[in-house]
């Protein structure tokens, strides 16, 4: 699933505005979502880029966990945009799965990053 998500993210982040606009034809209710969806995708991608710009600690496990939290949150944010504006049932199901699985993975990664309990 990670590779599919990474490919989806790369495709959404790298898509030209025309490609991103073409992806959504009409939102429920007949509204044309292109501008709003594109704006939200760009905002999600920018947040992810900002959050991935983390200082590295030299501990590969901690750096991986911190970076993956940002990466997964970006995927979740983009999946939520898909659910708001997208109509394709396959992509909507994928977005739901991305949200569910990556929220679980973020919980595991955050637990890893928690400081160990103090001894008395």
From TrEMBL:
InterPro entries: DUF305_CopM-like (IPR005183), Ferritin-like (IPR012347), Ferritin-like_SF (IPR009078)
Skewed-composition ranges (Low complexity): 19-35
Keywords of this entry: Signal
Residues spanning the signal sequence: 1-22
Chain spans, region Disordered: 19-43
Annotated DUF305 domain residues: 25-113
Gene3D superfamilies per record: 1.20.1260.10
Transmembrane segments: none
Protein's UniProt name: DUF305 domain-containing protein
Species this chain originates from: Teichococcus coralli
């Amino acid at each position: 699933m990670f590779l599919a998500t990474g490919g989806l993210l790369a495709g959404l982040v790298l898509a030209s505005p025309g490609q991103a606009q073409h992806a959504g034809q009409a939102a429920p209710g007949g509204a044309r979502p292109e501008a709003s969806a594109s704006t939200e995708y760009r905002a999600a991608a920018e947040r992810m880029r900002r959050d991935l710009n983390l200082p590295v600690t030299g501990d590969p496990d901690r750096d991986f966990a911190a970076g993956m939290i940002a990466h997964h949150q970006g995927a979740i944010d983009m999946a939520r945009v898909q659910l708001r504006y997208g109509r394709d049932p396959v992509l909507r199901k994928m977005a739901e799965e991305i949200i569910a699985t990556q929220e679980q993975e973020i919980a595991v990664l955050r637990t890893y990053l928690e400081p160990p309990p103090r001894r008395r």
